Amino acid sequence: MATLFDVAAEAGxxxxxxxxxxxxxxxxxxxxxxxxxxxVEKLSxxxxxxARALASRKxxxxxxxxxxxxxxxxxxxxxxxxxxxxxxxxxxxxATLDGDDARAVQQAVDAFVGQAVAAIVLIAPDxxxxxxxxxxRVAVPLVTxxxxxxxxxxxxxxxxxxxxxxxxEHLASLGHRSVAHVAGPExxxxxxxxxxxxxxxxxxxxxxxxxLLRGDWTPASGHRLGLELAERGDVTAVFCANDQMALGAVHxxxxxxxxxxxxxxxxxxxxxxxxxxxxxPLTTVRQDFEALGRRIMDTVEAVLAGDDEAVDxxxxxxxxxxxxxxxxx
Length: 329
Prior knowledge:
Blueprint: H1 4-11, H2 15-22, H3 30-43, H4 49-56, E1 61-66, H5 72-87, E2 91-96, H6 102-114, E3 119-123, H7 127-136, E4 142-144, E5 154-155, H8 160-173, E6 178-183, H9 189-205, E7 208-214, H10 219-232, E8 237-240, H11 243-255, E9 265-270, E10 283-286, H12 289-304, E11 317-319
Parallel strand pairs: 1-2, 1-3, 3-4, 4-5, 6-7, 6-8, 8-9, 9-10
Antiparallel strand pairs: 10-11
Helix pairs in contact: 1-2, 1-3, 5-12, 6-7, 8-9, 10-11
């Protein structure tokens, strides 16, 4: 791969002159610029982002911290963000952490600051990681994927509570008067928002909110809690906080000799690619995680350009399939 010094030798100029041409210095004489441009073209030279950053005192690198990578939502959001950043000409340095360890998050922040990143992005579902980032008081813009806007950082989110309300409203429209909830872990902000939306919608529609059982996002926890709900004998509708737990719940009701949706209706959340192929195909709340990732990058670019205008939350949508039906009379 050709270097800046190769271009300088080909054009018969200094490497400083090549750097000035590459970085758009308007004071370079047209004849000199033409020689450098010709050498760049001949050698297929591509200046590194690092070299440009050093020349302009600005970086084209973004630090990305995530603590939820094993799960569909955070992983898909990261994928959307990385693609958008690449198209915008940015490199992404990633710190993918196993959990919400405050020290690990702080170490990642310190490392990114040491790399002189242009901005730091947090795609982490837990409140502790967000609090570490907020308290870091770093001198670079912070953009987070969460629903709590506070001074000092910029937020981009999908309205989780609104999605939960869509699920409850759908079940109510079918005639269900009680909606159980298989919630996510209490430490996850999205899980809290979905639980809040479930409670608010039940109260607004005059439904019985309950029972509430808490899982860990996995199908195994959905199966375990689904068996508990099946033993009650009075549950006709269940809103699960994600599709994986909904899959486990469908399995549990089947094991208990009940049929979905004849005996119990189930709604999930996320619309993972497999949801349309569950048996029965799952009614769920769709989140466009790829779009969220792109919106985060749009926000980063806006903040770097000096635009502090708030970004509206992305709205989810209900996808009705065959796992919901009116209750048996």
